[in-house]
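Retro notes (design track)

What went well: tokenization of the new backbones is finally stable.
What didn't: we kept losing track of which sequence belonged to which structure.
Fix going forward: every design gets posted as structure first, then sequence, in one message. First example under the new rule, 313 residues:
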């Protein structure tokens, strides 16, 4: 993926809608408590939605039972509340939407773009070039009857282009940078790419604001939207909070969770991370006062497209 030249023309342009009414979302995976990196995604998507008078939904991405931690979803919701991040409507849970994902798979199957794959991880690693997000699947099982339980979707040899509100123009040739990708895993679980593409459309999301670790997922989700005849929302990928070793702050790096006990200083830190000016008086305000100020002064143009200075977390 690159933000520069177009190695594989022609480049069909994805129409960026963001038609009113604005609807954004925060989609945490309940694999642990909310940490600073997720707070950035939550705050950025909330500010973008509320500053446009839009709605902000919360979707619990509990697609993967082995990774789901008991009580984590509730903990995340309570922490969001403590930070004054109040959502609209009912919280949705991907674990309760399996039928919708099955229908999407049937639709893809009817289009003839799915195939079963029985390659193991090491077979793929051995026979692949390295792409933007791991090995590029070389298409080993394409057109074969290997009857694997993993389902992959065919990608096309063309470049996808989208305009990211923070990262600028992003171009990606899926065939060269990702390969045919997994939409249902061998264990029968639906893949994140499929569920996110389907849910964003089903929930009427007009703009997805999330962490830049998912920038590489967006072309896959746009590909699925196009196959399924779903609208493509606008996208804005926020810089990632990293630790002093340059690693993404998250559950994998055992980042400390954020506490809702004294929310304003943490919110100020998040706002500063998002490139927004922070007047000293904001320190003396309460959560409601903080959001009132932050929403009315929010400018997504100020968000850095690269990772800002390493935080001490
Ligand atoms: N569930 C993903 C995460 O917690 C976010 C997915 C998304 O925003 O599309 O990192």
């Amino acid at each position: 993926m690159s933000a520069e030249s177009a190695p594989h023309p022609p480049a069909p342009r994805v129409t960026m809608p963001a038609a009113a009414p604005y609807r954004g979302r925060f989609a945490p995976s309940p694999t642990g408590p909310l940490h600073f990196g997720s707070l950035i995604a939550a705050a950025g998507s909330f500010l973008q939605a509320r500053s446009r008078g839009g709605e902000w939904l919360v979707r619990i991405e509990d697609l993967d039972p082995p990774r789901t931690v008991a009580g984590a979803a509730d903990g995340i919701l309570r922490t969001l509340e403590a930070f004054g991040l109040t959502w609209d409507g009912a919280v949705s849970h991907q674990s309760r939407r399996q039928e919708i994902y099955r229908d999407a798979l049937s639709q893809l199957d009817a289009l003839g773009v799915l195939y079963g794959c029985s390659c193991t991880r090491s077979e793929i690693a051995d026979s692949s070039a390295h792409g933007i997000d791991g090995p590029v699947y070389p298409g080993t099982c394409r057109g074969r009857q290997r009857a694997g339980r993993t389902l992959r979707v065919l990608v096309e040899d063309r470049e996808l282009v989208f305009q990211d509100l923070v990262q600028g123009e992003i171009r990606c040739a899926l065939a060269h940078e990702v390969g045919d990708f997994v939409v249902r895993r061998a264990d029968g679980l639906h893949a994140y790419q499929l569920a996110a593409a389907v849910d964003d459309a089903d929930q009427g999301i007009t703009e997805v604001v999330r962490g830049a670790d998912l920038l590489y997922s967006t072309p896959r989700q746009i590909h699925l939207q196009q196959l399924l005849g779903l609208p493509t929302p606008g996208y804005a990928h926020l810089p990632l909070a990293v630790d002093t070793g340059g690693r993404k702050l998250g559950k994998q790096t055992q980042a400390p969770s954020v506490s809702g006990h004294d929310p304003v200083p943490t919110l100020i830190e998040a706002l500063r991370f998002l490139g927004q000016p922070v007047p000293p008086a904001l320190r003396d305000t309460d959560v409601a006062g903080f959001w009132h100020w932050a929403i009315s002064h929010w400018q997504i143009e100020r968000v850095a497209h690269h990772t800002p200075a390493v935080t001490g977390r």
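Added context from the reviewer: The longest strand covers residues 55-60.
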